[in-house]
């Protein structure tokens, strides 16, 4: 699973929950710009930020060794 796919999953789940980018960003303690980068799979957000966003919207991330 690449960064773009992860971001797309987070975005779909956020929208399905009826949460705005601003609301989710505030909930996980990042700027809306950073959350936008996560959702687009661009920039260099920290792993902690990606994990927090995914957890907040109920997206499961799997790592294959």
Q: Could you say what the CATH topology is called?
A: 434 Repressor (Amino-terminal Domain)
Compute the CA-based radius of gyration: 11 Å
Structural class: mainly alpha
Helix content: 55-70%
* Strand and helix order: HHHH
| CATH arch. level architecture | Orthogonal Bundle
CATH homologous superfamily (4th level) name: lambda repressor-like DNA-binding domains
Roughly how many Å apart are the termini? 12 Å
H/I helix tally: 4
What overall form do the CA principal axes indicate?
globular
- Low-pLDDT stretches are none
Q: Beta fraction of the residues?
A: under 5%
Q: Total number of β-strand segments? A: 0
| Largest sheet, strands/sense/barrel | none
Mean pLDDT: 91
Q: Tell me the domain tally.
A: 1
Describe it for me?
The protein has 65 residues and is mainly α. It is built from 4 helices and no strands. Helix 1 crosses helix 3 (32-40) and helix 1 runs parallel beside helix 4. The model has no long low-confidence stretch (mean pLDDT 91).
Features:
434 Repressor (Amino-terminal Domain); 65 residues; mainly alpha; 4 helices; single chain
Entry summary:
With 65 residues, the chain is mainly alpha-helical. The chain has helices at residues 3-16, 21-28, 32-40, 47-57.
